[in-house]
């Protein structure tokens, strides 16, 4: 008569549990040793009893087995990560290709191509999209024109201001010329009104206010003749 099937569960009796642990521990270590010898495998077994006692076996050394285990686990983890990453990027590439195909199809439809397969509702949606994009283009164009007009207005204001400053400078020069005329001719006219022809140095100013003012120097020649020397012409331009 054969042995009955043993139910795998925790043994409640501590003595029986200790006896079972000792028997199965010895059997496990024996099987590990046989596996290392028969199959030329590097085997390491670590067992802790219920009381915390350590039992181990290593076909070479426990340190060598643990180091090899750590390296192998890291390499397997890296391989799994690489494979997962490759699958992820493959899915991303597939999704991007689908999006690109859809965008190309939409672009062709917006250009008025490949419309034969669209329904009336699809055509209406396409028409609405085109109108919205056209309004956006017009709005951007109007804003650019407004900005250019504002910039030109600012430049015009600056030019106008510069013209006003130049006009003020011209008025100041005109006033200075009038004062210079008074200083030069006032004493001479009071003493001798007819002395203009014998003054060695004199200024000739036209009667018109806005006309060019001609300044000249006259010197008497050695033989009594008058010699006219050229002088720079100063004038005021009338600003309209």
From TrEMBL:
GO aspect biological process, one term: positive regulation of transcription by RNA polymerase II
Where does the sequence pass through the membrane?
Answer: none
What Pfam families does this protein map onto?
Answer: K-box, SRF-TF
Subcellular localization, as worded in the UniProt entry: Nucleus
Give the UniProt entry's GO cellular component terms.
Answer: nucleus
For molecular function, the Gene Ontology terms on record are: DNA-binding transcription factor activity, RNA polymerase II-specific; protein dimerization activity; RNA polymerase II cis-regulatory region sequence-specific DNA binding
InterPro entries in the record:
MADS-box/MEF2_TF, MEF2-like_N, TF_Kbox, TF_MADSbox, TF_MADSbox_sf
Major localisation: nucleus
Q: Which residues form a coiled coil?
A: 86-143
MADS-box domain segment(s): 1-61
Q: Which UniProt keywords apply?
A: Coiled coil, DNA-binding, Nucleus, Transcription, Transcription regulation
**Could you tell me which residue ranges the K-box domain spans?**
86-176
Cell inner membrane as a keyword of this entry, yes or no, is no
Name of the featured protein: MADS-box transcription factor 23-like
Species of the source? Musa acuminata subsp. malaccensis (Wild banana)
